[in-house]
Amino acid sequence: MSICFRFYIFILSALFSTLSHAQNVLISTSNNPNEPCIKMDVKNPNRLIAATNLNNYYISIDTGQTWTQHSQTSSFGVWGDPVIDVDTSGNFYYFHLSNPASGNWIDRIVCQKSTNIGASWSNGSFTGLNGTKAQDKHWSIVDRSNNNIYLTWTQFDDYGSSNPSDSSLILFSKSIDGGLSWTPPLRLNELAGDCIDSDNTVEGATPAIGPNGEVYVAWTGPEGLVFDRSLDGGITWLQDDILIDQFAGDWDYNIPGISRCNGLPVLKCDLSGGPNHGTIYVNWSDQRNGINNTDIFLSKSTDGGNTWSPAKKVNTDNTGRHQFLTWMDVDQTNGYLHFVFYDRRNYSNNQTDVFLAYSKDGGTTFKNEIVSESSFTPSSGIFFGDYNNIVAHNNVIRPIWTRLQGGSLSIWTDVTPRDFSNDTILITDTITIIDTIFVNDTTVIYDTTVVYDTIYTNINHLDDSIEFNHYPNPARETTYVSFKLHEKAQISLKLYNMAGQEVRTLIDNEERGYGKYIIPIDLQTSQLPPGQYYCKLKVNESFKTLSIIVVD
Fold first, then answer.
1. Which residue from 377, 447, 444, 373 is spatially nearest to 414, judged by alpha carbons?
2. For residue 5, is pLDDT > 70?
3. Domains plus CATH for the chain?
4. Are strands 48-52 and 56-60 parallel, antiparallel or unpaired?
5. Is 439 helix (H, G, I), strand (E, B) or coil?
6. In this structure, what is the dihedral angle of CA atoms 154, 156, 160, 164, given to the nearest 10 degrees?
7. What is the pTM for the complete model shown?
8. pLDDT (tens digit, 9 = 90+) per residue, 43-80?
9. How far is CA 517 from the centre of its chain?
10. Mean pLDDT in residue range 315-336
11. CB-based contact 118:68 (threshold 8 Å)
12. Closest among 8, 26, 58, 69 to 472, alpha carbons compared
C-alpha cells in the first residue's frame, strides 16, 4: 500500500538584512578588468553583453548565469571607457575611446556594431574628431521609438592642462542610421570647464529619452549639477543650463583605498506608462555630509526638467560611512528604480560591500540590500575605474561591479531571483514555496512556482517545529544546510540527484537535541557535477526537502 501526502516548504531568505543570500556570478578575472558596463536585449532578456577596460567584452545568453570572454579590436584602437547599448532589433553597440596607429590618443569616440550578439563587430564609425583635442567620458542612449542613437561626452582642448586658455565642453552627436554615421558635434554647456579633470571640469554627461522623444542630458562642473534638453531630436537646445543641485563637496573627492573616485551623475527617465511616467531622475554621490561620509543621492523632475526636487539620500544607513560609485536604471516595465553602489556601512576600515537599492514609489522611499556575498578591501595603488553599472527589466536585475581579491581585479554580477510585485510593507522576506509529494519514501518535486513577499511573523505558525534552509544557492564549492529543532529527534540528512539516487549521506540516523545545526556540504570533495540536487531532511518520521543547484 502506497502512502502519499503533500505539504509546503517555506524557505526564508532575509534579503534586506546585512547578511547576503545573493547569488553572485564571476564574469572574469582576466586582463585587469574595471569600469564595467552591462546591457540587456529587453526583447530577448536572455541576451546580455558586458564590457570592461580596456578592450574586454563578455557575452551571456542565459540571463547572466554564464559568460564567455572576448577582446574588442578596431583600426581606430580600443582605449577603454566601454559603453554597451542595444536597439529594438537586437543589434548591440560598443562605444569606446580611441588610440589609432596614425592619429592622436583618445581623439574620437568610436562606435562598433554587432548584428549577431557579439559574435562579430564592425570596424566602427566615429564622431568628435577635432585635431589634437581629447574626446572622453561618453555615454549613449537609444530612442526605442525610432532607434536613433544619442551620444554625449567631454571634449578637452588639452587633457590635464592647467592653462586657463584650455577648456572642456560637453558635446552631443546622433546617428539615425544604426551607427553608420554621426552628425557634427554640438556644444551643450553654457559655461566651459577647465581641462584638469577635476571639480571645475565639465564631465559625466549622460543622456536620456523623454516620453515624447525629448532628449535630456545632465552633467556636472563649475556650475554644479546641471540639465539641458532638446525637443527636436537634438537639433536645438536650451539657451541656459538648468541647475539641478549645487553638488555640495564637488564631484571629485577622496575615498580611502580608492585611487580615484567621483560622483558623476546618471540620468534616467521613466517610460513605463505607470504612475511616474515621464519623471526624470538623476543619481549621484557627494560629500555634503562630510568628507568621511559620502552618500548616494537622487533628485527628480516631474515637469520636463524645469524644476527639481531636493536631493534625497538613497542609502538608508545612518553610520556616517562611505557609499560611492553609484549607478542606476529604471525598469521600464513598472517604473521601479534600481541602484548599485559600494558601501562601507558595516565596517570601520576600508572593507567594502556592494549594495543594491530600489524604490517602487518614484524615489520617495528606498530599500537597501547587500548583494555581494563577501566584502573586499580595495588598494589605492590599483585603479578601480570610475563607475559600476546596472540593468533592470521586468524585475530581472543585473548589477555589475569590480572587486579586488588577492591583489587581482575581477568583474561580478548577481542573478538572485527577485519579485517585487506584492511588496507593500517595509520589512520583507522572500519565501519560496515548494509543493512536494512523497510516494513510498520517494520524493517528487513538481512545482516551484511562487516567490512572494510577506511578513516573517506570518509564517511562524507554518514552521511545523522544523526549520530547514540552505545558502548559497546556486553554489560552486561549498553550500550550507541548516535546520532547527524544537525538541530532541532522530535525524537523517541525505543528498539525492534528479534520478532519486542517493549521492551523499550527511547525517545517518543520529539523535540530535534542541537547537540550530549548520551542516557544510563540500561540493568539490563530493565531486558533484553541475546540476540540480535535492537535500532531504528526515526528522523522526517526517520529511522535508530543499533543491540545491550546483554550478561550475
1. 373
2. no
3. 4-15+427-550 (2.60.40.2550), 24-414 (2.120.10.10)
4. antiparallel
5. strand
6. -120
7. 0.76
8. 999 999 999 999 999 999 999 999 999 999 999 999 99
9. 34
10. 97
11. no
12. 26
